[in-house]
Specification:
Length: 390
């Protein structure tokens, strides 16, 4: 490939990845089994990104299962949600560009919920930060925190440089967090992630928790760690697949331990809200909602009417399951919307005349205030739904 036997596009991609590998002193290139590409929303990549993607079609196809990150609009319901035709048409051009080289247009940050689910120790090249954290930590597959372009190039050549999280010794923990608090909801676990991410930045935390938080909460935890810090891998004792390997290593005994108290969690929760007013839009599903999270919202909404807007962001695939299970109907008859392909951060929500957004994700709470001066309310799904129903 490097020498051009498989075409110019693959040679170009390989050349860039080999240069990247040299920068990180990688000893070799290794095969990967899947890729996940960020840099999809027109809001974040703009016209320069659109030109880059349209140009891709003339280069080379991807060689393996490659999924896209959320786009800037819900492709099927953009008009109903209030997005402009101009924005949507540019967004569709971007998605078509990716599709033309074989990328699956499943626009989601939770590809692991819809079939792009590697196995323990598999090497992959993923780029969305919360997905990177989940696939490394909860699944035990191996990826660096790729940029959108490097993940795409890896998908084109089916290989990535062997450095960072691909090397077993680099997956060991750096700091132990002894958490003296019994979590009862997703907002508290998100606050833990946010608190710890600020301390560790890109280091690897090892958590000692009183109980197993479950898959949905681990998704929330990783997203928060990756947004206040740049965490790409964490371990939870007796829960995540590599925790025992990490604990058995001699280096573990030398690690610093930090105790996290109830105060740390509650103070962080408070700091994540910028107002105590009632939100005019509640946005759930950051990272994109799983079917059990949607089921929970449907249960909370049964027989109620919303007095403010509600979006539950998810992938199109999970939305189809929600329709099949009857959850979509319950949510829609209460006045809520299942929003596919996009999310409250990568969609131009600031153009839709909302002022206060309610979220149960620390990652979303971190980003929403930067979007055109919107205020944010951070709370549990139960409390948020309570605030906007009658
Ligand atoms: Fe996903 Fe958007 Fe949150 S991409 S992790 S729902 S900010």
């Amino acid at each position: 490939m490097y020498n051009g036997e498989y075409g110019e596009g693959k040679a170009e991609a390989m050349e860039i990845l080999v240069s990247l590998g040299k920068i990180y002193e990688a000893e070799k290139m290794i095969p990967i089994t899947s890729a996940q590409v960020s840099g999809v929303s027109y809001k974040t990549i703009g016209d320069a990104g659109l030109d880059f993607v349209v140009d891709l079609g003339t280069k080379a196809d991807v060689m393996l299962e490659t999924m896209l990150n959320p786009a800037g609009v819900d492709i099927d319901n953009w008009e109903e949600l209030g997005f402009s035709e101009e924005f949507t048409s540019k967004q569709i051009d971007i998605i078509n560009g990716y599709e033309s080289i074989g990328v699956m247009s499943t626009c989601t940050c939770t590809p692991y919920l819809i079939g792009n689910t590697p196995m323990l120790n598999e090497h992959v090249a993923w780029s969305e930060s919360s997905a990177v954290c989940y696939v490394n930590s909860v699944i035990g597959a191996r990826t660096n925190r790729e940029g959108g372009p490097s993940a795409l190039l890896a998908a084109i050549v089916g290989r990535t440089p062997y450095y960072g999280n691909h090397i077993p010794e680099n997956r060991l923990a750096d700091i132990i967090f002894n958490v003296e608090y019994d979590f009862s909801n997703e907002a508290e676990i998100g606050a833990l992630g946010y608190f710890v991410g600020q301390i560790v930045n890109d280091k690897k935390p090892y958590f000692k928790l009183n109980s197993n938080p479950g898959r949905n909460n681990l998704k929330t935890l990783g997203a928060a760690l990756a947004s206040s810090g740049a965490v790409s891998l964490y371990h939870v004792e007796n829960v995540t697949p590599e925790a025992q390997y990490v604990k058995n290593n001699d280096s573990f005994k030398e690690l610093e331990t930090i105790t996290v108290t109830e105060n740390d969690i509650l103070n962080t929760m408070n700091s994540l809200s910028s107002t105590d007013k009632i939100p005019d839009l509640v946005c759930l599903g950051c990272p994109h909602a799983s079917i059990s999270e949607i089921q929970k919202v449907a249960q909370l909404l049964k027989g109620k009417k919303l007095v403010k807007d509600l979006w539950i962001c998810t992938s199109n695939a999970i939305k189809s399951v929600a329709i099949q299970c009857g959850y979509a109907e319950i949510i829609e008859s209460a006045g809520g919307k299942l929003v596919a392909d996009t999310c409250m951060v990568v969609a131009p929500v600031e153009e839709l005349n909302y002022e206060i957004i309610g979220v149960n994700s620390a990652k979303a709470a971190n980003y929403v205030p930067n979007m055109g001066g919107l205020d944010v309310v951070y709370d549990t799904v139960e409390n948020l739904i309570d605030m906007i129903t009658k």
